[in-house]
Write a structure and sequence with these properties.
Length: 304
């Protein structure tokens, strides 16, 4: 039986050779790449960064605003990288020798509790790093509630953890969340200030007495509304435990799915809270870094 196509020479696309450049003037990475690749659009270059095709001194860099120093070597590799190991419940979006930035799924604990020790973001990430080197460790810098999805980071040493935590307010440039709340928020833009206190039942509540709790400041802006819900962009000036959830309850519009803080509905079977943006100064390089995730589609589904 004659085999179809036998004897025909199969076409194999040519693999483009990597491009290598030396930095002559200090510049942001995106600006440098656009100058070196005039035939590529801004979006084309951002795709190369997103797909981790850009190397600086041999290290993958995906941040468009990474500052290049004179003498550094920039390499562009055109072939697609092999698919990275998928980690349960988390996705690594940035990693260097000092810290790791991840995107956490809803339903995953940031760290272990007395009731659950395994399959936390901490344990999964720790196992991944120890496979590279058994001496590798990670340290908690901040947390997201179990049912909150989005961006958070861990330190790779106690020294970096301490540096970040002790100068948190100075180092954090932006913390933006997306919240879906019950009802239509009448005032489209607002600011909420209170002092948060934790009860014996481990529930946070607001007080106007500065001697009772920690000052918490939350800004919100309405992005979309429907008959039953409002989609809010929420920015934190302070990062207290359950701050957004308590302040939304104070506003009279609890986060959907948040029965602990007054919600009566749970239309998407999860908490309607997502950490959209985390921006900070790198603890060593002092470089401004900004990471943004996509808004969960299930949130937008409530506003169609």
């Amino acid at each position: 039986m004659r085999q179809e196509g036998r004897g025909k020479k199969q076409f194999k696309p040519k693999t483009l050779a990597p491009l290598k450049f030396e930095v002559e003037i200090e510049s942001e990475l995106l600006i440098f790449l656009l100058a070196k690749l005039p035939q590529k659009s801004r979006n084309n270059v951002k795709v190369l960064l997103r797909d981790k095709n850009i190397y600086v001194d041999g290290e993958v860099i995906s941040q468009y605003n990474h500052v290049l120093k004179i003498g550094q070597k920039v390499e562009i590799k055109w072939e697609k990288r092999p698919e990275e190991q998928k980690l349960r419940g988390i996705k690594i979006i940035f990693e260097d020798q000092y810290l790791v930035v991840i995107e956490k799924e809803a339903g995953v604990l940031s760290i272990a509790t007395d009731k659950q020790k395994e399959n936390t973001a901490y344990s999964v990430l720790s196992e991944y790093l120890k496979k590279q080197d058994p001496a590798n460790r990670i340290f908690v810098v901040h947390r997201l509630d179990k049912d909150t999805s989005g961006i958070m980071m861990y330190a790779k040493s106690q020294k970096i953890q301490k540096t970040l935590q002790e100068s948190w307010n100075e180092n954090i440039l932006e913390r933006t969340y997306i919240a879906v709340v019950e009802g239509k928020v009448e005032k489209p833009v607002g600011k909420i200030i209170s002092y948060l206190v934790e009860s014996k039942a481990l529930i946070m509540y607001s007080s106007q007495n500065p001697e009772l709790g920690q000052k918490a400041i939350t800004y919100y802006e309405t992005l979309k509304t429907s008959k039953h819900h409002s989609l809010l962009q929420v920015n934190l000036e302070t990062g207290r435990k359950n701050q957004i959830r308590v302040h939304m309850q104070d506003l009279g519009h609890s986060v959907i799915g948040d029965a602990k803080y007054g919600a009566a509905t749970n239309p998407i079977k999860r908490l309607g809270l997502h950490a959209l943006v985390l921006a900070f100064k790198h603890p060593v390089s002092k470089e401004a870094m900004r990471f943004e995730s996509e808004m969960p589609e299930v949130f937008l589904g409530l506003f169609k």
